[in-house]
């Protein structure tokens, strides 16, 4: 899956060092699973993602340009009975603001609608994260509302803004 030079591909064991380094970047503390501290842990996580995809519980992709990993797109499919997927994403710190997230999310949405047969995709972000909001809206995800004090990080509760895109929505420009 590709667009604007960016494409999505499955994570590979050889990406483990990049994944581990990404989790150490600015703004990534809440993305890093607590049990991923070594390259071997990152390799295990990548293997777990492959198992989740095989079982259709979640599909996790690296956003790449050539061989360079720029970020990640993930959809979980726990509400498959309703055709709903929950999207999460991140971009490596040095690639933020370059269209990686928005393009990656457009590619993921197309895959979810065309290949996974999902109808509704949902995502959300802390209201103090305008970059994540720009990614969602640039990929055609409409704002649906605010969830008060939904997330808890380091003892502080944060409101989130929710977005969704339907298979019947027009493709974003």
From TrEMBL:
Keywords: Transferase. It comes from Nocardioides panzhihuensis. This is RimJ/RimL family protein N-acetyltransferase. It comes from the Bacteria. GO terms for molecular function: protein N-terminal-serine acetyltransferase activity; protein-N-terminal-alanine acetyltransferase activity. The lineage of its organism: Bacteria, Bacillati, Actinomycetota, Actinomycetes, Propionibacteriales. Residues 6-159 form the N-acetyltransferase domain. GO terms for cellular component: cytoplasm. InterPro entries: Acyl_CoA_acyltransferase (IPR016181), GNAT_dom (IPR000182), Ribosomal_N-acetyltransferase (IPR051908). The keyword Metal-binding does not apply. Pfam families: Acetyltransf_3.
